[in-house]
Amino acid sequence: MNFKSLRSACTLIAITGMLLLAFSSCDWKRPKKEFITFQEMQDPTNDTLSDWSNVKAGLHSSFISIDVRAPKSVAPEVEIKKSEKVTGWKGEKVSAQMILWTTADVDQVELEFDDFISESATLPASIAQARFVRYVMTDEFAEGCGHRKPEDYAASISADMLDNLDNFNIEAKTVRPVWLTIDIPSDAVAGNYKGKLNLYAERKFVEDFEIEVEVVNQLLPEPSEWVYHLDLWQHPSAVARVHNLELWSDAHFEKMRPIMKMLADAGQKVITATLNKDPWNHQSFDAYADMIIWTKNEDQSWSFDYTIFDKWVELMMDLGVTDMINCYSLLTWNNQVHYNDMEKKELVTLELKAQSDEYAEFWTVFLKDFTRHLKAKGWLEITNIAMDERSPADMQAALKVLETAAPELGISLADNHKSYKQYPGIKDISVGANSVVDKEDIITRRAEGLNTTWYVCCADPFANMFTFSEPAEAVYAGWHTVAADLDGMLRWAYNSWVENPLTDSRYKTWPAGDTYMVYPDARSSIRFERLIEGIQDAEKIRILRKQYSDENTSESLAKLNELEEAIKYFYTLEPSDDWNDKLNEAKKLLNR
Fold first, then answer.
1. Which residues of 383-419 are buried (b: 16+ CB within 10 A; e: fewer)?
2. Which of 78, 94, 222, 519 is close enough to 523 for a disulfide, judged by CB 3.0 to 4.6 Å?
3. From CA 334, how far away is CA 475, in angstroms rounded?
């Protein structure tokens, strides 16, 4: 008999009056579990002076909104809520949040779900997951981009990382959020399901909570079928460094598999690859390591080793990321390239201006060989030579080389110069959040099979995904994509981890959290879960638009009009103070 069954049996025994037997046979404890984890940084704010004197003894709990980042050191003053309802489509991932708090240390806190049962069907407990939320050090937006000294910016700790631990010790006078995720099966029967979430502490049962799941009779496709073009830049080198693994070893690739699978499951469309020397001039904590080894032989011929590049692309494709390979870059941030010179027996670094003859000669040899290799692998049609925030003059020079040496390759650009109109045929263009793409241009590009997205970075206070950002900003981003009629969103970076990513999200150059969305060992975050939520909303809008238009009845067209009116609000990135309320109101339309 398992512990849930034993507890139920004990309750039944007590109810039938066999109290003596109940006390003698039901004083059981759950197995003792080891608890090994890292230590969070100390809360640097005055929250640590919060008055806990009015909090009664024991472990307290309540559901709260997923739009809230709960402070760690403040005694909660919330309306106690012991049940929660979530609503979603078949195939949708939905979230809820609860907080636990205590005035004394509480060890081995655990949460387990029971099955979810409706009048006609059952959903297994395995569709639900409870993850303890960890606190990381963060700072503030301030002026956005620019070099930072920690002492110059207000520091605080933010609830963000979703840990993979199955139990947790809660310290005295602290709050511990718990993030609840329910993956509604695609084949679920529509209806209302009720289940229990059981809370245990100190190896004993504490209480249970009712979770209701309303399954709407609509189907959200698998992430691989989503149309939303998600491009979060991957950083393999960071994985090797954080986990102390040999770069590009089998162990390194195996460690990357679960974290990149998490990205594929979010609907990622693009593989981030490199062509030569770190394209971003080591702007992140870890330099991007070479994926293609360039060698100039003694006879002055060139050879290129694509072993790592191929292995990386194949890993990502195996996980389901198959739409694009964006290769950085013909335009590096410091104009540098390097190669092994077999005659000199050394690694040679060159600085090549894009407008120079040497630049054209150097890249032409590679591009022709690269095209040959991509054809042999069957990847040519999905591969783009990618540039990030380069000037129009450099772009024109690079485009000229590409047109001559590799006309079959696509081109990708993250454009912060408001210059997208100068490159009408670029296959994949992403404009900065402070730019506006004319809807006529988007429509024309889409008709030609060209992709148009937008991005946020350190310069954008909203809608962003820093570790101090409002959680719902990541959802707003999905709605803004729809309102602006863009094809999706780009963001650097998925996992450009800082020195100590588990505990301190700050970085020397940008607002905290700007460089990564998820954490080592495939730990998700509130930001990442909400980003997926916004993408799901965008997909639901796409489906409903088609459905209402196809039905073409007065009722369906009225619903479509109501939805379109709600979407208009999200065109701006300077919303009203009640933007979160507006967002939640709009989301309800998708589930009616």
1. bbbbbbebeeebbebbbebbeebbeebbbbbbbbbeb
2. 519
3. 35
Strand, helix or coil at 446?
A: helix
- Phi first, then psi, for residue 145 (nearest 5°) are -65, 150
Q: Are 256 and 315 in contact (CB under 8 A)?
A: yes
Q: Give the separation between CA 217 and CA 196, rounded to whole angstroms.
A: 23
> Mean pLDDT throughout 226-252?
98
Amino acid at 566: A
Give the count of beta carbons closer than 10 Å to the beta carbon of residue 242: 21
d(CA 167, CA 111): 8
d(CA 575, CA 462): 9
Instruction: Quick: pLDDT tens for 371-387.
Output: 999 999 999 999 999 99
Question: Residues 6 or more apart from 165 whose CB is under 8 A from it?
Answer: 35, 37, 132
pLDDT tens digits, 184-209: 999 999 999 999 999 999 999 999 99
**SS3 assignment, position 421:** helix
CA-nearest of 433, 412, 478 to 227 is 478
Q: Do residues 285 and 499 touch, judged by C-beta distance below 8 A? A: yes
Assign residue 436 a region: left if phi > 0, alpha if psi is -120 to 50, beta otherwise? beta
Q: In what order do the strands lie in the sheet with 156-162?
A: 59-64, 93-102, 174-183, 128-138, 156-162, 524-525
